[in-house]
Design a protein that fits this description.
Membrane topology: Multi-pass membrane protein
Strand content: 5-15%
Domain ABC-2 type transporter transmembrane: 149-229
Protein name: ABCG2 protein
Number of helices: 10
Keywords: Membrane, Transmembrane, Transmembrane helix, Transport
Main location: membrane
Amino acid sequence: RLSRRGRTIIFSIHQPRYSIFKLFDSLTLLASGKVLYHGPAKHALEYFSSIGYECEPFNNPADFFLDVINGDSTAVAASKDDHGPVDTGKVTEDNVDSSVVDVLHQKYLSSSLYQSTKEALGKVELGQGSKQRLSKQEHEITYANGFFTQLYWVSKRSLKNLIRNPQASIAQIAVTVILALVVGAIFFGVKLDRSGIQNRVGSLFFVTTNQCFSSVSAIELFIRDKKLFV
């Protein structure tokens, strides 16, 4: 339901089963910082078959791809006609065969999938190049969205938190009202003379100090939301 409302949903799935894998539209395989496949998920098995890696019957495609990347020849049925099994070189600390990764990466770079992706990216770059050039300072991108966009959404989220947790807001209002009555009672009826001016300065100092210390409670937001961002 969330995705149909236009939200982006990100799942972290470890070795998904076939019933989950067949729901994937696009598949990207990465190893050691290199792209080994990027394209439609339903064409992934066909692509690996074309480069000499046949998925055994009843084998989970997700497990099959991991076996290929890790150089596990016992679970991979390599074609013996045109493509021999890739020579297993030195295995890295991350349990990924570096020679297999290099070979698969080079095969992907020479595939039609890579060429079509490169052409699509080239069109995007040309489209961006046709726009007016901004100054060096304006062209420098630090965030995905501008300041006012960030301010709008953060303010909206904070407002929702206040509405959904009315107890904290009521408590803050009550404390503020009580302190206002106390300060007003202490400095009530001061005269317009030298001592009155000093009393007013004292009241302003007390109110300012109270506001500064009350704002320290905002640190709780960073502590609570830090886990969410991490």
